[in-house]
């Protein structure tokens, strides 16, 4: 491993893993942690055959597959081949969601049924695309308004068809070429490749195992087909935390991580971004996805702010507690809180940029503008709460908001008529170097301070 934990930390993590495997009678269970782009811990309990599972043992990851589908859709958007506001029927016509927008399918607020028509899809051979699409009829729509969260496996089967239509090739081929190979995830496949754990169910009242079936989901494969390993899932965690390589622009990933729908109402501890599950736990904003298929449970959760993440894989239909992933993150934070990197001076800031730093006034309210280490600007209230946003240069002299109230808005640096006094035009808001500076074009005139 690239980084070493203290023995007491490793023991505490192993104990939590062992309690889960023993107490919930899980045939095999493997978990891992990443921090700052490095794998810092992997351990396992139970057996796959006569061996402990290791970092190369495949498990089915179920709905974690959906996160890959979402990235492929966002790549299509970034290339200009679709807009998230496009009607789904503009690209894949002939279903009951022709009038739904692409983003609604990604965010589980399209009104579609949770499961596709026909038999229990997770345990039966899947339909060919034309049969699957024909089954997405009006009977598949639910009465909830579209802005309400309603998890839909069917939606991601449809999004897989969207990818295939626009790329002109099979979903798994697109996935391999655009994500798996660039990220070096060579042990993530659509069917099991040895060594792999068998799917198992544990009898609720006796220590007896029942093999679970594995079926090719065909057109529903984008909803939960993939198999993977802890090593590959740790790489995917680094992706979700921000290490996107050449696969996706970091701004697009950040867009996917923003809440689009909420699962638990006013509590807002669980929600959905664009193809990603979101959770709030202990002050952390977590992003990832769970996975469940007959014989398997899995979860990946990344904490982008702390550059940390956790994954677990298990071959059991039920039994792994929902708290395992967050408990492992809590143990790491308690025993070895992240130490921030040393501050070092930057590579220099231009005089023009330095001139912009310091206090600005939005009317009478002081705001502070700073240059960040990555060359972006940070605007925030000088004291107390206020509208805070980061801005990046647009390459033509202006700045574009990245987050907060001013996300996507344009910041322009201008000067008064005499050419000396600068002011900021932030989407019609005028910020000045002194409150209501009379030299700046503040609408409605300026005040005479008495």
Automatic annotation (TrEMBL):
Q: Which domain of life is it from?
A: Bacteria
Gene3D superfamilies of this UniProt entry?
DD-peptidase/beta-lactamase superfamily
UniProt keyword annotation of Hydrolase present: yes
Output the InterPro entries linked to this UniProt entry. AmpC-like (IPR050491), Beta-lactam-related (IPR001466), Beta-lactam/transpept-like (IPR012338), DUF7586 (IPR056008)
Q: What is the residue range of the signal peptide feature?
A: none
> What keyword terms does UniProt attach to this protein?
Hydrolase
Q: Which residues form the DUF7586 domain?
A: 350-433
Residues annotated as coiled-coil are none
Name the Pfam families on file: Beta-lactamase, DUF7586
Question: What GO annotations for molecular function exist for this entry?
Answer: hydrolase activity
Q: Does the keyword Hydrolase apply?
A: yes
The residues covered by the Beta-lactamase-related domain are: 24-327
Q: Quote the SUPFAM superfamilies the UniProt record gives.
A: beta-lactamase/transpeptidase-like
Xref: PANTHER family:
D-ALANYL-D-ALANINE CARBOXYPEPTIDASE (PTHR46825:SF7), D-ALANYL-D-ALANINE-CARBOXYPEPTIDASE/ENDOPEPTIDASE AMPH (PTHR46825)
- According to UniProt, the name of this protein is Beta-lactamase
The upper taxonomy is: Bacteria, Bacillati, Actinomycetota, Actinomycetes, Actinopolysporales
């Amino acid at each position: 491993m690239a980084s070493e934990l203290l023995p007491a930390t490793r023991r505490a993590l192993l104990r939590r893993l062992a309690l889960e495997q023993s107490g919930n009678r899980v045939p095999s269970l493997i978990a891992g942690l990443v921090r700052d782009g490095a794998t810092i811990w992997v351990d396992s309990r139970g057996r796959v055959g006569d061996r402990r599972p290791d970092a190369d043992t495949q498990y089915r990851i179920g709905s974690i597959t959906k996160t890959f589908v979402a990235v492929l859709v966002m790549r299509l958007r970034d290339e200009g081949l679709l807009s998230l506001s496009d009607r789904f029927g503009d690209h894949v016509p002939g279903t009951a969601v022709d009038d739904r927008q692409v983003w609604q399918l990604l965010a589980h607020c399209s009104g579609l049924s949770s499961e596709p028509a026909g038999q229990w899809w997770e345990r039966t051979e899947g339909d060919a695309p034309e049969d699957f699409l024909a089954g997405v009829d009006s009977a598949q729509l639910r009465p909830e308004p579209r802005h309400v969260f309603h998890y839909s496996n069917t939606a991601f089967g449809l999004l897989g068809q969207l990818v295939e239509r626009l790329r002109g090739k099979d979903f798994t081929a697109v996935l391999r070429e655009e994500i798996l190979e660039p990220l070096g995830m060579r042990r993530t496949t659509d069917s099991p490749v040895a060594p792999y754990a068998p799917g198992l169910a544990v009898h609720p009242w006796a220590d007896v195992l029942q093999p679970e079936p594995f079926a090719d989901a065909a057109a529903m494969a984008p909803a939960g087909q993939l198999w993977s390993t802890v090593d590959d899932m740790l790489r995917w965690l680094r992706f979700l935390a921000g290490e996107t390589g050449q696969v996706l622009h970091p701004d697009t990933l950040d867009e996917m991580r923003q809440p689009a729908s909420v699962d638990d109402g006013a509590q807002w501890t669980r929600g959905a971004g664009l193809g990603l599950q979101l959770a709030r736990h202990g002050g952390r904003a977590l992003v990832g996805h769970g996975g469940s298929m007959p014989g398997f449970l899995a979860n990946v959760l990344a904490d982008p702010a702390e550059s940390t993440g956790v994954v677990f894989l298990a071959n059991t239909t039920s039994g792994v507690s929902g708290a395992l992933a967050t408990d492992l993150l809590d143990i790491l934070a308690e025993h070895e809180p992240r130490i921030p990197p040393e501050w070092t001076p930057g590579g220099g800031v231009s005089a023009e940029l330095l001139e912009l730093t310091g206090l600005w006034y939005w009317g009478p309210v002081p705001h502070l503008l700073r240059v960040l280490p990555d060359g972006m600007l940070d605007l925030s209230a000088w004291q107390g709460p206020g509208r805070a946003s980061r801005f990046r240069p647009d390459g033509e002299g202006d700045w574009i908001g990245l987050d907060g109230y001013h996300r996507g808005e344009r910041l322009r640096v201008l000067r008064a008529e005499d050419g000396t006094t600068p002011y900021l035009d932030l989407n019609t808001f005028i910020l000045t170097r002194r409150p209501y500076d009379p030299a700046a074009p503040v609408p409605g005139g300026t005040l005479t301070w008495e």
